[in-house]
Design the sequence.
């Protein structure tokens, strides 16, 4: 049984000679001449067990986070590929929660969103319908406001299986969000572990109107961090059949649609801006919402009528 060390030596020698692909037999003969002399006492009718050698080859890191991978099946052909990236410390239970917390403010600024929330930081995260990150951009019109709801499915790894799961989730979000994205670390042709599947995933997202955002990760000695964001492919806008989810998100994030002027405003009267029915008190010179004033006047009238037996 050839040892793992022989597989590591093969990987390093193949990379030094800039070989993108090869086979175990051919590679050993070319890069490790005389390797079978070490096993001269093995009878000629006995086949070698290459399991340890294969393990050593694929687990040896070469170049910039690359390694040799065997083609599908148990064949002896291998090719050079980028290793899968995973965010988080070893044995960290939920690295996506920490990554999402770091990503949210960067994403909000980059996409110029008015509000964005990382649902996994909310104790009652189930109200978000499993969306990892959700927010909106207000569209100010002449007579009224509207908004676009954005949903993001985050993965802490660019493993092909995880990315495909993210795509499926993002497609489901299109039922109640205008724009849906997947957000994946190192999703580009040079960093993705499978170039062929990369193009397939991009095509799948374009076909389903899902956007892709790649996080370029800066590897640190203690912790990795987000270095940059890039939109690989933009999403297509979906018209909402129902505003139920939208109204729920507005309420959670303390926004509302003013029933008088149809502007989207903060639910806190003291923070309310852009409302067409905010009037200025002549005494205090502070803005007050016409809706609040109408409710207060109606309450005073009701009390007056009651006190006079009307």
Sequence:
């Amino acid at each position: 049984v050839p040892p793992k060390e022989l597989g590591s030596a093969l990987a390093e020698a193949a990379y030094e000679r800039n070989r993108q692909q090869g086979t175990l037999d051919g590679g050993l003969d070319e890069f490790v001449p005389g390797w079978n002399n070490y096993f001269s006492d093995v009878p000629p009718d006995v086949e070698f067990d290459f399991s340890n050698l294969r393990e050593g080859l694929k687990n040896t890191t070469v170049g910039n986070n690359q390694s040799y991978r065997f083609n599908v099946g148990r064949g002896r052909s291998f090719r050079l590929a980028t290793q899968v990236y995973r965010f988080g410390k070893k044995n960290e239970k939920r690295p996506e929660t920490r990554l999402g917390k770091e990503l949210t403010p960067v994403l909000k600024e980059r996409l110029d969103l008015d509000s964005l929330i990382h649902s996994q930081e909310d104790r009652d995260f189930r109200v978000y319908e499993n969306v990892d990150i959700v927010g909106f951009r207000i569209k100010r019109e002449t007579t009224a406001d509207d908004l676009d709801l954005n949903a993001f499915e985050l993965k802490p790894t660019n493993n092909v299986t995880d990315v495909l799961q993210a795509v499926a989730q993002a497609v489901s979000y299109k039922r109640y969000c205008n724009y849906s994205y997947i957000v994946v670390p190192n999703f580009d042709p040079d960093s993705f572990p499978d170039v062929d599947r990369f193009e397939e995933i991009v095509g799948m997202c374009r076909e389903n109107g899902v956007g892709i955002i790649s996080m370029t990760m800066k590897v640190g000695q203690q912790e990795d961090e987000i270095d940059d964001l890039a939109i690989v492919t933009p999403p297509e806008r979906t018209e909402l059949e129902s505003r139920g989810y939208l109204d729920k998100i507005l309420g959670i994030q303390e926004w509302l649609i003013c029933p008088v002027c149809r502007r989207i405003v903060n639910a806190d009267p003291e923070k309310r801006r852009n409302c067409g029915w905010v009037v200025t008190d002549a005494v205090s010179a502070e803005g007050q919402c016409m809706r609040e004033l109408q409710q207060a006047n109606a309450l005073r009238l009701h009390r007056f009528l009651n006190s006079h037996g009307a």
